[in-house]
Design a protein that fits this description.
three-stranded parallel beta sheet; three-stranded antiparallel beta sheet; 5 helices; 9 strands; about 35% helix; elongated
């Protein structure tokens, strides 16, 4: 029986990255109920890298993570984690105030955005309904995140750091005993 200093329940991206970080400081067990890590949730909501997304705090965290995603540590991934995609915030009549507020907000945060009129928006996406189209905000730096590659990079880092990974290990109950 092992007696790890930390047990992390769930081997998705969050659990694997936490295990990799903690394993440098002590013994870690990463336990996953399923037969494979990340079976249910990993990648369902973390597939885009957008510096414009979320609250100011989330945007700050996103910007702070860019260097890691763009240049992960040697051996972390055998291909790029990020790939270019771009994103558009599109507005039609009645949404001018929303478009203006979004532009002011994104522009003030330093996101790489461009304001497009209706013609420029249609030139980029010809299938849009042109009636009432006001224009769009283009975020050229929005990128896809290869969540599979990211997840497996963290799992490999977890194992390299010496953490134990148990699959098919459902937590039935837990209790504190003494100081542990």
């Amino acid at each position: 029986m092992i007696r790890p200093e930390a047990i992390i329940i769930g081997a998705g991206i969050s659990g694997a990255s936490l295990a990799a970080g903690l394993a440098a400081h002590g013994s870690v067990l990463l336990a996953e109920r399923e037969s494979q890590p990340g079976y249910h949730s990993t990648g369902r909501s973390a597939a885009m890298f957008m510096a414009s997304y979320g609250t100011p705090q989330v945007r700050a965290l996103t910007r702070a993570s860019h260097a890691f995603y763009a240049q992960p540590p040697a051996g972390f991934a055998d291909a790029p984690i990020l790939s270019p995609r771009g994103a558009l915030y599109v507005a039609w009549q009645g949404q001018q105030d929303l478009l203006d507020r979004q532009w002011n907000d994104l522009h003030a945060t330093g996101c790489a955005v461009e304001r497009l009129d209706a013609a420029a928006t249609l030139a980029r996406v010809p299938v849009l309904r042109s009636a009432g189209l006001l224009g769009a905000i283009a975020e050229a730096d929005a990128m896809d995140i290869d969540v599979h590659l990211l997840h497996h990079g963290w799992l490999a880092a977890t194992r390299r750091a010496g953490a134990s990974v148990w699959l098919g290990a459902e937590l039935a109950s837990a209790r504190r005993v003494g100081g542990g």
